[in-house]
Amino acid sequence: MNLDKSTKRIAKRVKKGFQGYPQISLAYFGESTTCATQVVVAYTSEEGAEIQEQKFSCQGDVRTDETIQTTLWKVIERADAKSVLEVSGVAIIQ
Fold first, then answer.
1. Residues whose CB falls within 8 Å of the CB of residue 87, separated by 6 or more in sequence, listed in order
2. Are strands 23-30 and 83-92 parallel, antiparallel or unpaired?
3. Predicted confidence (pLDDT) per residue in 61-86, tens digit
4. Rounded to whole angstroms, how far apart are CA atoms 55 and 27?
5. 3-state secondary structure of 21
6. β-strand pairing of 23-30 with 38-44
7. pLDDT band at 26, cuts 50/70/90?
8. What is the side-by-side order of every strand in the sheet holding 23-30?
9. What does 38-74 look like in DSSP terms, one character per residue?
């Protein structure tokens, strides 16, 4: 799947907002607010359940990395997530 297609699909799901569980949250991290080198995917199966996290990183910006964006979309699909939430912006990591 190409980068444009996967990012549009993820954005469409994020735009819907909270629709129930299971839920996936995406948070981007980097050394500056302009380049996210890491994304953390948090999966919650139901309210109050333990959160499972997985991290993906690359040398460049993960938001423009075709492999990572396609992987994120596949994680969302396979988890059958009803809600996909995204933390806005890029958090600075030290």
1. 25, 26, 27, 28
2. parallel
3. 999 999 999 999 999 999 999 999 99
4. 10
5. coil
6. antiparallel
7. very high
8. 52-57, 38-44, 23-30, 83-92
9. EEEEEEESSTTPPPEEEEEE-SS-GGG-HHHHHHHHH
- The DSSP code sequence of 66-90 is HHHHHHHHHHHHHHT-SEEEEEEEE
CB-facing half-sphere around the CA of 66: CA atoms within 13 A: 5
Q: How far apart are CA 29 and CA 32, in angstroms?
A: 8
Tell me the C-alpha distance between 85 and 59, whole Å. 24
Paired with 39 in beta bridges are: 28, 56
| Tokens representing residue 13 in the block | 């799901």
Instruction: Please indicate, yes or no, whether the overall pTM of this predicted structure exceeds 0.70.
Output: yes
